[in-house]
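Question (not urgent): is this output format expected?
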Amino acid sequence: MAVFEYKALNAKGKNVSGIIDAESTAAAKSKLRQKSIFPTSLAKIESRSGIIEKKPLDFITKFRLFGTVSSSELSMVTRQLSTLLSAGFPLVKAVETLVPQTKSLTMKKVLSRIKNAIEEGSSFATALALYPNVFSPVFINMVNAGESSGTLEIVLERLADFTENKEDAKKKIQASLAYPVLMAAIGFGVLIILLTYVVPGIVSIFSDMNHQLPMPTNILISVSSFFTVYWWAVVLVPFLFFVLIVFAKKTEKGGWFIDNLLISMPVTGTLLKKIIAARFTRTLGSLLENGVPMLTALNITKTIADNQVLYALIGKACDAVEQGGELGDVLSRSKAFPGLASQMIKIGETSGEIEKMLEKTADLFEKDVQTTVTAATSLIEPVIILVMGVVVGAIILAICLPIFEINQLIQ
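Got this back:
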């Protein structure tokens, strides 16, 4: 069965669009007319297992077709699929039922193609693997383990929980940082406006006098002149520095240097290591709990570290485990991984409850990260206010000092 994308008019004469499964173009038109939808264009977008058959796609269509799906939407679809399977729906029927319920056009197309791939004999995990922009390696391997063990609906429910918890933790950190970042941006913008527009008009009065100006006023005039003439450099230099960092991170040596520097910094480095440890233990624990072998799980989790130092460390752990060693021993030898996390993993390996200990470790570090971020943001806000107060006060003082001197001369 093929998948068609249509644009049409409904019974009220409004433009509608979507996708529909049918054996042929004629069958697709017939199914649409039965729903009181009258197609103005109809294009076959798939032949087999998600392979595009029609004309080459333009950039916009490619973006819509192969774009990523939000975590919240993926979580919702996963939970709905788990519910349908638990209710006794066959897999193909469950996926087909979700297609019209999904709002995202990208997800509609992906689900339709997955259904067709399953009907053609592919496993669910194999069908998911056709869309790496939508389904992560963790998602695919957990589904594969669920299919093999016959517990697919349970695995899907855990995946939904895993995705939701990850998104919630991310949103909490973003929410905690949003206000301080906004305050810093507004403060910097106000400072630039003061130095480039307000201050020059005031200090120009003093520049025309033959009177010797105080040092703070001279400094303010120099700073204001610099920002007025070289304002473009203030914007361009940070942007070029950011671009340089991005390109350097893509190289092997540059990426290693930057990643090592990030985790070696006194405060932010410790926080970053805790974030990576929480993500690593949570993902590894979920994979192991759902039947994924340790070596396979480690090879999957090292890709989510997003840090070359930690990536190499987990790679060493893979080699050690393959040779009969223990994961906790390898991790404990490196300062790049939190010592408490490696000790808890050791305890889990000794007690034979590595999955539970990984989950406890993830819970511990996620709460620790949230507490640290909340405490840091509560300190950042008054610091930003204090710095802005000092800067504005210094500007006002530099403007007022020559006025006071002139008044004394007049008297």
